[in-house]
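Narrative of accomplishments. A recurring question from our advisory board has been how the design workflow behaves on a single, concrete structure rather than in aggregate. To address it, we present the structure tokens for one chain from the evaluation set, followed by the sequence designed for it. No filtering or post-editing was applied between the two.
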């Protein structure tokens, strides 16, 4: 008869039973008369007691272990597996670059990233990715609840969306094509079909910046909704989405939160906001955009003023925003757009869009751009679009800020950047 496979975390519910555990040998500790095996599976760790000299295989060997679940107050979770038979499912051709059971990670970021298939097995290195997954689940749950339809859109496109400079060009059956910088045009078009859409997927930026907060491929959590009054309706959805992400992280991956000592932020019912012009006045600066140092300063200011780790900056100058941006009524040099800063870093960009066909043609003409490359995009508006707006949240930045990671590469399984194309 086959024995039931049980997860490490489920052992306390099976005391006295004969069960099967499958996983990786996390740690092998040979004492005088017994050898302790610690097995790791997706749920956590389990202790196995074998006779001295048993299972003499290296750590990270893949094992199936059958045995009896026995109560032992000294063991982790108060249980251990005794009288085991150990079967090797897969042995190692190569040891990990550092031992994965020590609580601290004794390796530099490049070593971690180069060895991702094995280094990320370290519970502390896996934890940010679990938090990331829970965050996406929370994002989906909130938007599903608000009547949004999830969509998937092409990642190979015929024109730039955000600005011309930072696109990857490729050859598409002999025609020029680009990796999508954003699902911007597609999500707007789908407002015309579904009213409310969202997408979670990869986007590509040929950013030559070698910084701790830029990747050449990142995950964009995008949303777009119709029949808004202005950007404030979009900001209300951002607030709900972020609050739902925090709730999902707290509820789904409490162990990862605890392991990394993550301080979950409180998302205020109303996130404080400041107009771009006012922010510049406070900063004593006069620039068309916020520099990273400005964002950090404003982050601290919001914490002092409002006790909030979040701050909306609204009304960015039109000339720094893409052509689809809606101007601020009465102050057309500014826009109905916003960024959300989280712990002093830009996390979200969004705003109200133009929605009339002739406004798009006018906006392109005013920027001296030909409407030709955008013909397919502009057709959405030719067919009738409601007033709408949306936003995009950078997932890796979110997880990095949440977990206190010093570099967003720690929250990316296989980062793609200026230097990195493997693994
Ligand atoms: P934007 O270009 O500001 O807006 O991008 C939105 C959010 O994506 C994140 N982000 C990045 N994360 C990692 N590496 C990068 N190179 C990178 N660039 C941006 C940031 C940023 O706030 N279409 C608009 C969104 C909209 O208006 O709906 C857009 O893409 O967290």
């Amino acid at each position: 008869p086959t024995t039931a496979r049980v997860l490490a975390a489920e052992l306390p519910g099976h005391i006295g039973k004969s069960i099967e555990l499958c996983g990786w040998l996390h740690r092998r500790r040979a004492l005088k008369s017994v050898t302790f095996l610690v097995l790791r599976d997706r749920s956590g760790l389990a202790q196995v007691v074998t006779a001295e000299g048993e299972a003499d295989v290296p750590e990270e060997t893949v094992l199936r272990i059958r045995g009896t679940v026995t109560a032992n107050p000294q063991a982790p979770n108060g249980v251990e597996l005794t009288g085991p038979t150990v079967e090797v499912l897969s042995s190692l051709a190569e040891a990990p670059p550092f031992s994965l059971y020590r609580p601290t990670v004794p390796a530099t970021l490049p070593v971690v990233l180069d060895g991702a298939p094995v280094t990320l097995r370290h519970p502390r290195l896996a934890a940010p990715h679990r938090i990331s997954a829970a965050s996406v689940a929370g994002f989906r749950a909130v938007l599903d609840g608000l009547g949004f339809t999830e969509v998937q859109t092409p990642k190979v496109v015929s024109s730039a969306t955000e600005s011309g400079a930072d696109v990857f060009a490729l050859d598409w059956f002999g025609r020029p094509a680009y990796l999508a910088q954003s699902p911007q045009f597609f999500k707007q078009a789908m407002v015309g079909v579904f009213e409310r859409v969202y997408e979670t997927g990869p986007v590509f930026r040929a950013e030559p910046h070698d910084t701790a907060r830029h990747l050449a491929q990142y995950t964009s959590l995008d949303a777009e909704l119709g029949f808004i009054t202005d950007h404030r309706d979009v900001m209300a959805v951002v607030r709900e989405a972020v609050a739902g992400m925090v709730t999902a992280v707290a509820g789904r991956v409490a162990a990862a939160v605890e392991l990394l000592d993550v301080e979950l932020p409180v998302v205020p019912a109303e996130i404080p906001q400041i107009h771009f012009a006012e922010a510049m006045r406070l900063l004593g600066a006069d620039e068309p955009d916020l520099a990273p140092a400005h964002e950090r300063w404003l982050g601290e200011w919001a914490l002092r003023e409002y006790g909030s780790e979040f701050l909306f900056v609204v009304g960015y100058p039109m000339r720094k925003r893409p052509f689809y941006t809606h101007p601020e009524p009465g102050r057309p040099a500014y826009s109905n757009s916003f960024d959300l800063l989280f712990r002093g870093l830009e996390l979200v960009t969004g705003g109200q869009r133009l929605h009339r066909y002739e406004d798009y043609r006018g906006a392109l003409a005013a920027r001296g751009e030909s409407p030709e490359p955008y013909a397919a995009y502009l057709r959405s508006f030719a067919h009738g679009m409601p007033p709408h707006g949306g936003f995009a949240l950078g997932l890796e930045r979110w997880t990095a800020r949440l977990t206190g990671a010093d570099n967003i590469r720690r929250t990316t399984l296989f980062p793609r950047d200026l230097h990195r194309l493997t693994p």
